[in-house]
């Protein structure tokens, strides 16, 4: 491990949240966790510095700050695959189109209204694929006519489709990765894990930036194959990694399932940091929004994330107290920070110059 440079933030106290009311972070936090998190913290600071980027995706409004990267479903509310953890419910709040001409009209309007980009997504067929072919010409037109940064939650495409998306101007492919046959066939209802591996290889061969997503607690709330998913991801050299958390969505087979504990998720994040030291890691937008969710945010900062979507005010306070430098961007957390997409600090009442507390050297 490289020696810590003098301009890095001091090591935090990993047992206690600095934010009022969140101490201890987890009563189960033991010596092995202390060692894991300290190593992850050191790597993150050595490889990525003090910056932490907070993202507001979609068109969410938060503290007077609006996301400028809406998700748009190309299948309306329809999804044939019906994965057990989603069953199409995540499509409901999205913008929707059913025809290519409607996508072109919507895209032009979104660009004219100052949006930075679009996340194209939709429901899958029973083979895990989306009807990209009928939209390729329109996607290409949007790429030529506007400055929109185009990402796609691709489903599980074959090589021909991945190359066509790249040629049409898709900059990023967001693709869910699970670690075993059980998760692939029982939860995602795919033909097998081979479908996922083939899709990863197709995206990588196409040259699109690849942003894998892992759902922590995917198999009925248990951390099961997620560590094997990390190993798969590492082999294919991702552009960034996003970790989200199972949400017990109403109307799904997992509506009564309890998500994993914050410490279990943070251990997964820390392990990802050790496995992929140079890769940006994000705590994504789909996760619990409660006291446990805030604890997860505080733990994730210590576990080596460099990005967080849809943050709490406590997370910003915690980042500052840990000696990190928050910055803000109104896009999906898959998008690298850039000045053109940045937004003002929506928390002017939180002093950027506050003195770090609960820090140990």
UniProtKB/TrEMBL annotation:
Protein origin, superkingdom: Bacteria
Keywords: Iron, Iron-sulfur, Metal-binding, S-adenosyl-L-methionine
Start and end residues of each Radical SAM core domain: 65-286
One Pfam assignment: Radical_SAM
Residues annotated as signal peptide: none
UniProt key word Hydrolase: no
Gene Ontology MF terms in the entry: catalytic activity; iron-sulfur cluster binding; metal ion binding
Cofactor: [4Fe-4S] cluster
Name assigned to this protein: Radical SAM domain protein
Biological source species: Uncultured Desulfatiglans sp
